[in-house]
Amino acid sequence: MTGLVYKSTGSFYTVKTDDGQSYECRIKGKFRMKGIKSTNPIAVGDVVDFELDNTTDEIIGQIHHIHDRKNYIVRKSVNLSKQTHIIASNIDVVFLLITINNPPTTTSFIDRFLVTAEAYGIEAVLVFNKIDTFDDAMLDEQLYLQHIYSEIGYQCLRVSAKDKKGLEALKKMMTGKVSMFSGHSGVGKSTLVNALEPELNLKTKTISEQSMQGQHTTTFAEMYDLSFGAKIIDTPGIKGFGIVDMEPGEVSDYFPEFFRLKDQCKFNNCLHKEEPHCAVKAALEEDKIAWSRYNSYLKILEGDDEHYRTDIYNDDRIASDQTRKSE
User: Fold this and answer.
1) b or e along 40-55 (b: 16 or more beta carbons within 10 Å of the residue's beta carbon)?
2) How many C-beta neighbours within 10 Å does residue 81 have?
3) Where are the alpha helices (H) located in 94-230, listed in sequence order?
4) HSE on the CB side for 223, CA within 13 Å?
5) What's the chain's average pLDDT?
6) Which residue in 116, 250, 133 sits closest to 182, CA to CA?
7) Which of 86, 223, 303, 316 has the smallest count of CB within 10 Å of its CB?
C-alpha cells in the first residue's frame, strides 16, 4: 500500500491512502539503519510504501520504502548538533510566520530560514502576523522589514487571525498546494490554522508574559486537509535554525540579491568579505542591500550556530535603526 505521512511522533506515523483511510505505522527495523543521519528518517509529507501486519489484535502498518522527495526543509537538531531534523517534505510553499514583539522574530532567524528554503528549492512567503496588536513603533518595524524582503523579491502578507485580516489572500496562495506554517513558538501558527479552518480547533496557548517567548502547543508536525482544497503542515515552534551542509562559497547563492550581483565581482570565488572590487559590498555601501541581510550572511559564513539560538532581535533592531538614521 502507498500513502502520505500526515503525522510523525518519532515512533509512530499516521499514513493516509488515496481513498482517505488512515493507518498507524511504524518503521521496519532494518529501515532505520540505512545510514540516515537525520533524527527522523521519515517526515510529514513523505510518500511511503507500507504493508499491514494482521498478526496482532491491533492493525499496524510497517513502512518499508520512502519515495524520492521533491524537496524537504531541514535544520540542525538542537540537541544533537551533528544530526539533522527534517521538518517536512514535498512542500509547495512555506509560510514563515513573523511577529514583531510578541514574541520577537529576529532577522537572522528569518534569513537562515529563507536560505534553507532557497537551498532546497521551496517557495517561501513571509507572513507578518498579529498586525492587530501593533503600535506605531511596531508598525514602523514591520513595514521596514516588509520593504527589505519585498525588494529582494519575497512575497509578504500582513494578517490578523483575530480580526480575520489577510486570510482570503492567504487562502488563495494555499489552494491546491501543500503548504507549511513555520516560525517561533507563539507566533500564532495554530491560531492562524484555526482561523482558516475553525472546525479543526487546534490547541493554542498565550505568550508567556515574563519572557515574551511562545509556549509550545504543537508537539509534532502534522498535516491537515482544509475545506478550500489545500493541505497545511503545522509544525512545532522553532527556537533556532541551524544551517546544514553548506559550503562557504555557495552561501551567497541563496541570498537572491547577492546572487544577482555575483558576476559583477572581480573574482569568481568572491566571498564578499575582504576581496577588492566586490559588487555586493559596493551595493551594501550604496544601501541597495540591507545591512541586516549582510550581517546574517556573515554569521552563516562564520558558522555562528550559537548565535541563532540566543539572538532575540536587539542587535538587528539597533543595526536597522542605525541604517535608517543614516539614510
Assistant:
1) bbbbbbbbbebeeeee
2) 10
3) 107-119, 136-152, 167-174, 189-196
4) 27
5) 82
6) 116
7) 303
